[in-house]
């Protein structure tokens, strides 16, 4: 409800004493359990409780949410919202987390424990689904809440029942309430393998860290033991005469209690403990969601716009958690998630406000992302598959370098030496690892599939020649009298643009390789971050203005994740002259590309500064026009 800032909030005005007393009586009538048994006849304690839950000087304000829902707040003199209603004339007073943070004699609402860490979607206003609820296999710990009933949500860092804290307030919307939702869950697990869509269990009215929480002082929420339900769904096993759930059903739910299926974040222990079982679509969806958040944490705004397919393949997949067992990693893909299609997922994220997307000619383009989105702000980073693989590669390189039987190598030390240099030219920063990659595309896909090349993944350039040589040998296509030529069969002929080839048609091997290279889709890896298309170097051009004034123009910085503003600031100090930022001439305004203009002919100092940032010299060039003028 409060995933975005309020559209409007009126000035808070003090509530009259008579209105306060009427409101207090209405709250006691709606929440009789709030007083507790011992305070029912104790007038002094009743007054003390009244001053706590609705203090003297309480203020009232109206509000409108970002989706147009109107309501009313009752706030403490310090501005903490204690109660709220939705609708202009509503008499349903809903407690907030600020009220629940007080030392209340007893809980005002039924309490439901949910898994920790909290499901990321509910932090952004998404509903709660029944598998995210804990204690499903212990119905005596579940309140028999009905459809439409208000509830409080608690969670524990240890997922135990001794140290829970309030995290939110919601309304049950599942048909049949808790009992109906649980019966459907059991039927799903027993007859559908847990894959059937069960519908939402509860709507979230307020949740920790949302914009309602941000309105007040954000007090600490004290831990307490999970309250025993006044009206439990079932009696404990030693007291139940006719249990609601069969023993088989409870055993089935016990499995999902330990390894919950839906929105909560599957952690290392929960996944590794069930690595022999396939991941559910809900678990895969959650893993992909946190992988996207991990990727967005490392991406800069200059990386966008970006095709959704490239964001998924080059950023989301490499940022999947490394704790996913290797034999299960191939399962964590969009086709096996709840969304099934990438477009559906992207549109959902667009509605949520995390991504800004645009659909053009059937392709979804991600224009930008909201770096202040609650799900990004609350995301806890983890070790990714890409980081794990990079670490393993470095370890292998170190072992190879220290092998006494192999060729000694100091390349690693040479690359990392001088990273602490204080200025340009005083040391060389760790060189950025740049690697060109390719994958099959266009009319040659049939050939690459026949050559055993996976069309969905990126490959090293050396695999082009390896795959071609293997195919030629396997199909006996090397010219018998001149190995510089190869014979063309249907697949190879189609790949090089000759279809259908005549028997005996041949082509020079170098020409075949050239045509195959031009027919694939190229990408580039910059320090492990994949970018689509061929890589263009950072270019410097020295131009003369107004007769004698020279200015060095530098562009292409964004491709290498260099902020033009930061680079300009660095060059002002290094060159002891002016440096400005201008839009790159000839580039589309949508791309937001810029060039840095530096006073004087500064090619050498600029090159040293870029090398100091880890850019290899082969990716820094001076334009031909500048060279001719020298």
UniProtKB/TrEMBL annotation:
GO BP annotations listed: formation of translation preinitiation complex
Residue ranges occupied by any SUI1 domain in the UniProt entry: 538-614
GO MF terms held by the record: translation initiation factor activity
Low complexity biased stretches: 269-278
Biased composition, class Basic and acidic residues, residue ranges: 388-398
Keywords: Initiation factor, Protein biosynthesis
Residues covered by region (Disordered): 256-278, 387-428
Entry-linked InterPro entries: EIF2D, eIF2D_SUI1, Pre-PUA, SUI1, SUI1_dom_sf, SWIB_MDM2_dom_sf, WH_eIF2D
Protein name, as recorded: Translation initiation factor 2D
Source organism of this protein record: Kwoniella mangroviensis CBS 10435
């Amino acid at each position: 409800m409060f995933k975005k800032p309020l559209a409007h909030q009126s000035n808070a005005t003090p509530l009259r004493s008579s209105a306060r007393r009427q409101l207090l009586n209405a709250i006691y009538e709606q929440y009789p359990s709030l007083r507790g048994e011992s305070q029912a006849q104790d007038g002094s304690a009743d007054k003390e409780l009244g001053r706590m839950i609705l203090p003297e000087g309480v203020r009232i304000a109206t509000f409108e949410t970002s989706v147009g829902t109107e309501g009313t707040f009752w706030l403490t003199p310090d501005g903490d919202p204690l109660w709220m209603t939705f609708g202009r004339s509503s008499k349903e007073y809903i407690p907030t987390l600020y009220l629940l943070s007080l030392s209340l004699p007893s809980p005002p609402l039924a309490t439901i424990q949910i898994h920790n860490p909290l499901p990321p979607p509910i932090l952004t206003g998404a509903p709660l689904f029944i598998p995210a609820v804990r204690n499903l296999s212990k119905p005596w710990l579940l309140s028999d809440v009905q459809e439409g009933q208000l509830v409080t949500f608690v969670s524990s860092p240890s997922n135990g029942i001794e140290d829970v804290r309030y995290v939110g307030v919601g309304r049950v919307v599942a048909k049949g309430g808790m009992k109906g939702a649980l019966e459907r869950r059991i039927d799903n697990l027993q007859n559908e393998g847990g894959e059937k869509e069960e519908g939402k269990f509860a709507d979230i009215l307020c949740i920790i860290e949302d914009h309602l929480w941000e309105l007040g002082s954000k007090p600490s929420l004290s831990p307490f033991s999970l309250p025993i339900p006044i009206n439990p769904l079932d009696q404990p096993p030693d007291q139940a005469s006719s249990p609601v759930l069969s023993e088989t059903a409870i055993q089935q739910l016990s499995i999902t209690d330990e390894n919950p299926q839906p929105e909560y974040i599957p952690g290392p222990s929960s996944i590794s403990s069930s690595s022999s079982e396939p991941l559910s679509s809900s678990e895969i969806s959650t893993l992909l969601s946190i992988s996207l958040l991990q990727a967005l944490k490392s991406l800069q705004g200059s990386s966008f716009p970006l095709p959704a397919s490239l964001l998924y393949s080059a950023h989301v997949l490499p940022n999947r958690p490394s704790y996913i067992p290797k034999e299960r990693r191939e399962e964590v893909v969009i086709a096996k998630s709840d969304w099934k299609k990438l477009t559906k997922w992207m549109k959902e994220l667009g509605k949520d406000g995390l991504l800004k997307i645009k659909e053009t000619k059937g392709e979804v383009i991600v224009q930008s992302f909201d770096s202040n989105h609650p799900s990004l702000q609350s995301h806890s980073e983890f070790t990714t598959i890409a980081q794990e693989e990079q670490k393993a590669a470095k370890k292998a390189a170190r072992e190879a370098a220290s092998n006494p039987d192999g060729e000694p190598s100091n390349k690693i030390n040479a690359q990392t030496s001088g990273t602490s240099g204080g200025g340009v030219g005083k040391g060389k920063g760790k060189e950025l690892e740049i690697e060109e990659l390719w994958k099959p595309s266009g009319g040659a896909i049939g050939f690459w599939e026949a050559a055993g090349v996976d069309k969905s993944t990126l490959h090293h350039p050396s695999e082009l020649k390896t795959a071609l040589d293997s195919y030629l040998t396997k199909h006996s296509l090397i010219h018998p009298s001149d190995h510089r030529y190869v014979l063309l069969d249907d697949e190879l002929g189609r790949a090089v643009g000759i279809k259908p080839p005549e028997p005996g048609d041949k082509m020079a091997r170098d020409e075949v390789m050239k045509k195959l290279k031009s027919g694939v889709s190229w990408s580039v890896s910059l320090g492990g971050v994949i970018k689509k298309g061929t890589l263009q170097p950072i270019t410097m051009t020295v131009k003369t203005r107004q007769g004698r004034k020279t200015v060095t123009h530098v562009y292409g910085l964004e491709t290498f994740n260099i902020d033009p503003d930061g680079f300009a600031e660095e060059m002002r100090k290094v060159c002891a002259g002016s440096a400005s930022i201008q839009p790159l001439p000839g580039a589309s305004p949508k791309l937001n590309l810029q060039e840095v203009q530096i006073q004087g002919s500064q090619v050498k100092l600029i090159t040293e500064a870029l090398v100091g940032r880890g850019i290899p010299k082969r990716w820094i060039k001076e334009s031909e026009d500048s060279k001719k003028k020298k």
